[in-house]
């Protein structure tokens, strides 16, 4: 590593990235390439001799960028956002610069200690109960994704109960969640050895706006107990992936407590909004949770990846995930005076991810972060008003955060209640390259999801997106009638 060469090349890279952001609106938001496109454009094997950075930049422009879907485009309204910011970017850069592997405290004390502190800061912004702070038995940790967060929570919960009832009873353990829960929980159950038939996806419907109904949970639990099964894990979602449904945390917490179950709260997307006092009520009841997860890389200006997880009892994680091989032994770990994050996660190695979250919190400050969230919610409200004002459309579930779920109303006698019509509308909009949205299906209806959450999105982008949607809808309706 030659420091002067790094300086020269890194300056060029920063210029390249800055120009990318300046011109980001000129690219089709959703990549329009076909599968396998890159195979024909790149050589079969790696070069024998070094090539110039300029040659690589040329290839990035001509061959890579066409295959990029521009998540940071202001016209990106799909899935959930994956935020970047100057602060997050600089933190990533610094982390790449240090390039440490902070699996245990001794492997880079600042990495562990900054993570502990920053997760406490964020827990306080979210007003999480004291038990989630590092001062007691709990604490926070940065995972790569919400999928890893729910997996480690599930493993900790599983092993906690198996220590009491014996490992051979694993076939009796039952997990509960709503049918709107992210598929990450299903994957976690598969990995954790929970029997497929013991993974209860409880039905939701429009009567509760797709939130879990506590009575349904209680009934499922008592039915299972009556046949000798052992309920042990309940997952509540605050802001489901399809429609931002909010499960009733307080009621679910009571049920989990009464049945001695682990309650995990998945607030991967909507958790960020809970730093605003007016949205904090969505996580009222978190006092009874055992673990809480929010993806700072979704809607909190922190570049991917940064999924924050808090647990009340860190020893449950450690008992489930710790290993102590000779080659990692050291005085600090042996005397139990430090956190070794390798015991709170699946992999051993871990990046210095707290740097970027620290930089986000410091370079913005909580007031700006709150305004950031509020602005997106305001833009989503404006979009919702546009939809409501056009009688050809309907908003399908009430909007809570920055996601609007809507659809084009089908003409009378439409064969499939607008399923194909809306599917075609989505295809027409996305293939225009002007914006990118995604979809879901709720109660058999094909629904368009419009999420405001890209840091560069302004009112004009939302209005323009709506114009494109209206034009494409008009053309499709004309075709249907014609
Ligand atoms: N939970 C919810 C509510 C989500 O919306 C998502 C992704 O959008 C996930 C979990 C999975 O996220 P990750 O990609 O971080 O595993």
TrEMBL record:
Organism encoding this protein: Aristolochia fimbriata (White veined hardy Dutchman's pipe vine)
Gene3D superfamilies the record matches: Aspartate Aminotransferase, domain 1, dopa decarboxylase, N-terminal domain, Type I PLP-dependent aspartate aminotransferase-like (Major domain)
Needed co-factor(s): pyridoxal 5'-phosphate
Record bears the keyword Transmembrane helix: yes
Gene Ontology CC annotation, any one: cytoplasm
Gene Ontology BP terms: amino acid metabolic process; carboxylic acid metabolic process
Family to which the UniProt record says this protein belongs: Belongs to the group II decarboxylase family.
Signal peptide: none
Keywords assigned by UniProt, alphabetized: Decarboxylase, Lyase, Membrane, Pyridoxal phosphate, Transmembrane, Transmembrane helix
Protein name per its UniProtKB record: Tyrosine decarboxylase
InterPro entries tied to this protein: Aromatic_deC, PyrdxlP-dep_de-COase, PyrdxlP-dep_Trfase, PyrdxlP-dep_Trfase_major, PyrdxlP-dep_Trfase_small, Pyridoxal-P_BS
Pfam families: Pyridoxal_deC
GO molecular function: carboxy-lyase activity; pyridoxal phosphate binding
Entry-annotated residues carrying N6-(pyridoxal phosphate)lysine: 298
């Amino acid at each position: 590593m030659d420091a002067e060469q790094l300086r020269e090349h890194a300056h060029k890279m920063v210029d390249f990235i800055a120009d990318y952001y300046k011109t980001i609106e000129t690219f089709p938001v959703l990549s329009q390439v076909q599968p396998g496109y890159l195979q024909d454009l790149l050589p079969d094997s790696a070069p024998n001799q070094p090539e110039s950075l300029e040659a690589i930049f040329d290839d990035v422009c001509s061959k890579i960028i066409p295959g990029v879907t521009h998540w940071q485009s202001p016209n990106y309204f799909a899935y959930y956002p994956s935020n970047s910011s100057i602060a997050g970017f600089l933190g990533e850069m610094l982390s790449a610069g240090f390039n440490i592997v902070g699996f245990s405290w001794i492997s880079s004390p600042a990495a562990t200690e900054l993570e502990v502190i920053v997760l406490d800061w964020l827990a306080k912004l979210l007003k999480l109960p004291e038990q989630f702070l590092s001062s007691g038995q709990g604490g926070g940790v940065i995972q790569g994704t919400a999928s890893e967060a729910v997996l480690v929570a599930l493993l900790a919960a599983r092993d906690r109960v198996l220590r009491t009832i014996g490992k051979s009873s694993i076939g009796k353990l039952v997990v509960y969640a709503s049918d709107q829960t992210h598929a990450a929980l299903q994957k976690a159950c598969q990995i954790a050895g929970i029997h497929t038939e013991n993974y209860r996806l409880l039905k939701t419907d429009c009567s509760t706006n797709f939130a879990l109904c506590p009575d349904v949970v209680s009934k499922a639990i008592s039915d299972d107990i009556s046949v000798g099964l052992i309920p042990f894990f309940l997952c509540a979602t605050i802001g489901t992936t399809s429609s931002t449904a909010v499960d009733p945390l307080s009621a679910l917490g009571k049920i989990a407590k009464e049945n001695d179950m682990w309650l995990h709260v998945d607030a991967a997307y909507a958790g960020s909004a809970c730093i605003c006092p007016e949205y904090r009520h969505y996580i009222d009841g978190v006092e009874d949770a055992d673990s809480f997860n929010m993806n700072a890389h979704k809607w909190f200006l922190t570049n991917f990846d940064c999924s924050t997880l808090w647990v009340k009892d860190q020893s449950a994680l450690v008992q489930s995930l710790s290993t102590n091989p000779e080659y990692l032994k050291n005085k600090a770990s042996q005397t139990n005076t430090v956190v070794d994050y390798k015991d709170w996660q699946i992999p051993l190695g871990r990046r210095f991810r707290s740097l970027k979250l620290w930089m986000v919190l410091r370079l913005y400050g909580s007031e700006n972060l709150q305004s950031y969230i509020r602005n997106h919610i305001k833009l989503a409200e404006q979009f919702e008003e546009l939809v409501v004002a056009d009688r050809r459309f309907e908003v399908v579930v009430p909007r809570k955060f920055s996601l609007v779920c809507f659809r084009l109303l089908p003409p009378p006698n439409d064969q499939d209640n607008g399923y194909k019509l809306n599917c075609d509308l989505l295809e027409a909009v996305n293939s225009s390259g002007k914006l990118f949205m995604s979809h879901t299906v709720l109660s058999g209806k094909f629904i368009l999801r419009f999420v405001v959450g890209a840091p560069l999105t302004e009112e004009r982008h939302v209005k323009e997106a709506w114009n494109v949607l209206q034009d494409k809808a008009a053309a499709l309706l004309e075709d249907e009638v014609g």
